[in-house]
Amino acid sequence: MSNVPAYLWLIPFLPLAAAALTALFGPRVLRQQSHWPCILAAAGSCVLSVFVLLAVRDLAPTGPADHRAEEQYVAAYYTWIHAGFVDIGFTLRADSLTAIMLVMVTFIGTLIAIYSAGYMHGEEGYPRYFAEVALFLFSMTGLVLADNYLLLYAFWEGVGLCSYLLIGFWFTKPSAADAARKAFLVTRLGDVGLFLGILALWVTFGHTLNYDDIFGQLQRSGPPAWLNGICLLLFCGAVGKSAQFPLHVWLPDAMEGPSPVSALIHAATMVTAGVYLVARSTPLFVQAPEAQLVVAVIGGFTALLAALIALTQNDLKRVLAYSTISQLGYMFLALGSGLGSTLASVAVVAAIFHLFTHAFFKALLFLAAGSVMHAMGNVIDMRRFGGLRHVLRTTHWTFLCGALALAGVPFLSGFWSKDEILATTLEASRQAWSPYQAIYLLLLLSGLLTAGLTAFYTFRAYFLTFWGEPRIPEEAGHHAHEAPPVMTVPLMILAVAALAIGAVVEPFTHWFSGFLGRTPFLGEVEEHRPVVLLAMVSGVIALAGIAVAWWMYVRQPGTAAALAQRFQGLYQLSLNRCYLDELYDVFFLRPLAGLREFCRILDAYVVDGLVDLVGQIPRLFGAFFRPMQNGLVQFYAVAMMLGVTVFLVVILFKYGW
Amino acid sequence: MSAVPLHNYLVVGAILFVLGVIGFLARRNMIVMFLSAEMMLQGVTINLVAFARYRGNLQGQSFTLFILTVAACEAAVALALFLMLYRSRKSLDVSVWQDLREAGQPATVDEETLPLPPVEEPLPTLTPAGLEPEHRGERTHV
Amino acid sequence: MISCSLLPMFAAAYPAKTMWAITVPVVLGGLAVFVLLPRPRRFPPLAGAACAGLALLFAGWLLVDTGTSGPETVLFYSFSGIAIVGGGLLVTQANPVKAALSFTLVVLSTCGLFLLLAAPFLMAATIIVYAGAIIVTFLFVIMLAQQSGLSDADQRSREPLLTTVGGFVLLGALLFILAVTYDSSGIERHVRRTEAVLERLSALPPDGDWRGPSSDVESTLKDFLEWQSQTVRSGTDASKRLEAALIDAASTGASPQATRTDVVQALNNVRDRATEVRWTMGFLRPGANARLSDASGPPPNLPPGELRRDAFGRPPLPAANTAYLGRSLFSDYLLAVELGGTLLLIATIGAIAITGRRTERPR
Questions:
Q1: For a tag on chain C, would you pick the N or C end, based on fewer CB atoms within 10 A?
Q2: How many CB atoms lie within 10 A of CB C289?
């Protein structure tokens, strides 16, 4: 178990083998049993991840806090690129951060694979689905295991590809195909920044992309002048992948994919890759306070904006999608607040802790929403069903667990992690350079407001779906029923986790912060005193949000409509997602379309004209010779004879006889 | 008294060969082309036999026998081909077969017209005596 | 055209007689063929015929001068003349039937040449195969295909000018190579003259004065040396030995102390060396790895001077030509004979397969 490098590679390659197996034999051999390779591989990876976690925990601390490069397992398996002084290996590393991510990804991946076996049952592309999910698990585990930025980038694109494939799972549906394309392209936009950032790192840190080398150099020689720029470029990738403000538009559309995919990729794992990237790059960001401010502002703004939009969405999954964006914004807010090396580790702990808890309760919520969809005949519009708490008992209470956790009800998972983020922001507003203090304070207030909004929209969705008079859409038929155990059991497991995991790992034991603090190049997490007042305020706000939701949708069901009528403008703004898609259309797509048209004309007439001109020159020469090819055999024979004659005469002149 | 030198035979062979080349290249009847090719072979065989004579051995003659064999094969296959070609286009003119020219290139056609063949005087015929009797659908053997 | 502009260069390098002997018949012959080739508006055929006759005449006089007269020479001239005239008719005759008959003429006169070259079996075989089989088949095909008389294409030629010029430039080049490589008439003339001088010397009394115009020693040697210096093939070993012998003989003849015996000895040496040159003229010695049995005659790598020779200086061929040819074919060329038989079989099958009428089967 302590020989980590011996089995570390199996964590990504078990799912890869499953993907290959399913892809090759799924359609013909496995058919409706195609889920087995994926489930077994995910479970195997999960077990191995737990081993890795334990092995990392057992590593004895060596050396002082900021030079603990030894507290990790590095396994170099294969030299990927070896050219000149370029030497990039397929090297995996396991430290605390990676171990936590691994356990989270594989555990949730396993549960979702099991759930999918029930949810996707009878679908046409059943083997394809599981091959893609397994491929995704390969990419995601590889992403968190990567030892250098280039390998991370490769897996980063891998998860992007899987996301594209899975969003477009029902590719015959135009909206799904469009959503997949949108997700891929918008994410690419950020990826360009990430790649530029990686190239900048490459140039800046003496042709190495290894985390340890880069962070070590940074510690030794101080920050280079353009570190802010590099950090912002890296953050670009995170913005794209984690759906932050300018590039968040793809995530709500991504709900066209199957619900388990939404749970796995677009709530729990892939979208958190951006958070992981920034957390991993914390040693860089710590040295670039301006970049951190940008991270914090974008995070806080996205959190608020997404929460505001989520207030009025009618589509259950879209509410959850905006909630995801909002919660990711929270995480970035935390990461952006990590000023100075001491606070940075606290911030990383807060962000990763929220990531961790969020993964559980948001996956739970999506799976529960999927269960609702399953029962309602794929109808997800909350206006068309209601009062489902008697029909879908298990779904109801598991959804409630998730909602409570998400809303930040005191002593549940979401409460602890959100509290840590707010505390970090509060601390940042104290420690920041004075002109920035106000901004951090503002961000703290918006975070508190977001907490209230979160509680409100979560319970709005909950009440609309499960309370009120029972309504079932006709698509569901007469057999609206609870899902089979293969789906409900994962829900229950996740529900328990959503309620308890936050309380178990951190607030009393400080196990999480202690463990995460041992990530190399991350400062020791000090025992921070809990800000009781802040926790109380946020708890009260959350409860208040829930109470308002209860009032508006259960007690006085007409209130919401009346308010919407009253504040028509605001309502429409929120309902139409602040018209952001439309703004993008006007400001980006239309000018780009114009540019495209211009380029097309340029290409068709100028470039093609030049190329044609070049092509015309041989044609011109050919015009002289073409009549020779007249198809007359004798003409060719004459040419041959003349050739022989000329050769003979030349030889005669040249050599005498 | 002396014999005809080797050189003289070689000259005759060369002249026959070149006449054959010219015939092959200029004439358009496939059969005449083929005869010209055979004449080139004749020029070569004269060469070989003359050398055999002046070397005093039989190698040239043996080789000539093989040339005869190959010429016979060639004649058989070529005549078969000519018949097939004639069957499909009803002409022995090689210029009929110019389909493998460059695409878009106009076909080569003969521009000069042939002079009219001399009009043969019709044979003297007797003026018909009376009208031809009416045929009643009987089959004639004419 | 190219030969016209570069002709002076040739003339500077080679004897003028060779140049004229090649140029005149070739140009006249080319003109004749060009004039006589069938075309819609024909040139007067008589002019072409005149050109052809002149070309033949000049060729016979300048090009293939045997220097002697005898039955063999007469037969050679007549057979080769008929062959060339027949070839010209084949090329210029519009009617394919007549062309086929001219080809028969070519074949028959070639067979005559074969006889002169001591190849009677080949003569018979060629008559049977060509005249007897191929020509008859050809005529058969012509009758089958062209029942409506002369076709349009027979009265036209493809590229007459280009073809004729190209063909006769090729002929000129070939003749030039033959002339410089194989033409032995010059050296034979000098050998004969030397022999005549030797005869005259031997007729003189042993101690008499051999100098003077009656013996003609000096002018003979002078002409020989001049010819030797002009000839193209002066680079070979035999040629160098001849030159040394000539110079030696000239100095012997010029020295006042030389006796007649010395001069006869020197002239004998010159004659022997000249005969050696005449034998080696134009022969490329094949490599030693052509392993043939005695049945095919002397081995190909035997130097020409070592061949046994008859009264005319030619190596004798076995009299029983057919028997020896058969022995040679079935010993040295057995595999080739078998392959030739296979080829004939395949060609027969192929011809049947090509001409067989295929019935289109409905698919």
A1: C
A2: 7
Which residues have C-beta within 8 Å of that of residue C254, sequence separation ≥ 6?
A: C218
Chain A residues whose CB is inside 8 A of the B100 CB are 631
Residues C245 and C91: their CA atoms lie apart, in Å, by 50
Pick from A411-415, C38-42, C107-111 the range whose average pLDDT is largest: C107-111
Candidates B65, B87, B90, B98: best to mutate against C (most CBs of C within 10 A) is B65
Tell me C316's DSSP state.
P
How many Å apart are CA A283 and CA A304, to the nearest integer? Answer: 27
Cβ atoms within 10 Å of A53's Cβ, excluding its own: 18
Residues in a beta bridge with A76:
A91
Contact A641 B105 (CB under 8 A): no
Cα C85 from Cα C91, distance rounded (Å): 10
A630 to chain B, any CB pair closer than 8 A? The answer is yes
In order, the DSSP letters of A180-232 are HHHHHHHHHHHHHHHHHHHHHHHHHTTS--BHHHHHHHHHHH---TTHHHHHH
Chains in contact with B via at least 3 Cβ–Cβ pairs below 8 Å: A, C
> Which residue in A309, A176, A198, A149 sits closest to A243, CA to CA?
A309
Best CA proximity match to A329, nearest among A295, A283, A356, A376: A295
Name residue C157's beta-bridge partners.
B27
Tokens of C61: 């006089």
- Give, as one character, the DSSP assignment of residue C90: H
Distance CA C118, CA A349 (A): 113
What's the Cα-to-Cα distance from C351 to each of A309, B75, B77, C357, rounded to whole Å? 88, 9, 5, 12
Backbone angles phi, psi at A627, to 5 degrees: -60, -20
Pick from C158, C166, C177: CB nearest A645: C166
Number of Cβ atoms within 10 Å of the Cβ of B110: 15
pLDDT at A232 over 50: yes
**Which parts of A507-558 fold into alpha helices (H)?**
511-516, 532-550
Block residue for tokens 């090297």 = A91
Core vs surface per residue A493-526: b (16+ CB within 10 A) or e: bbbebbbbbbbebbbeeeebbbbbbbbbbbbbbe
pLDDT tens for each residue of C92-139: 988 888 888 899 999 999 999 999 998 999 999 999 988 888 888 788
Given the cut 0.95, state whether the ipTM is greater than it: no
CA atoms of C304 and B55, how far apart (whole Å): 7
Distance between CA atoms of residues A156 and A337, nearest Å: 25
Residue A175 burial (10 A CB sphere; 0-12, 13-18, 19+): exposed
Show the tokens assigned to B96: 């009929």
- Which residue pairs, CB below 8 angstroms and at least 24 apart, start in C277-280? C277/C187, C277/C236, C277/C238, C277/C239, C277/C242, C278/C184, C278/C187, C278/C188, C278/C191, C278/C313, C279/C304, C279/C305, C279/C307, C279/C313, C280/C236, C280/C238, C280/C304, C280/C305
Q: Token pair for residue A514?
A: 């202690």
CA distances from A13 to A25, A45, A107, A162, C299 (A): 18, 9, 16, 16, 78
Whether C290 contacts chain A with CB within 8 A? no
pLDDT band at C310 (very low <50, low <70, confident <90, very high): confident
Q: What is the pLDDT of residues A597-656, one digit of tens each?
A: 999 999 888 988 998 889 899 888 888 888 888 888 888 899 999 999 898 888 877 765
Contact yes or no for A638 and B102 at CB 8 A:
no
CA distance A645 to chain B (A): 11
Q: What is the pTM of this model?
A: 0.58
Look at residue A109 and give its three-state secondary structure.
helix
The answer to whether the CB of A635 falls within 8 A of the CB of B28 is no
Question: Between A and B, how many CB-CB pairs are < 8 A?
Answer: 40
Of A47, A103, A145, A97, nearest to A515 by C-alpha is A97
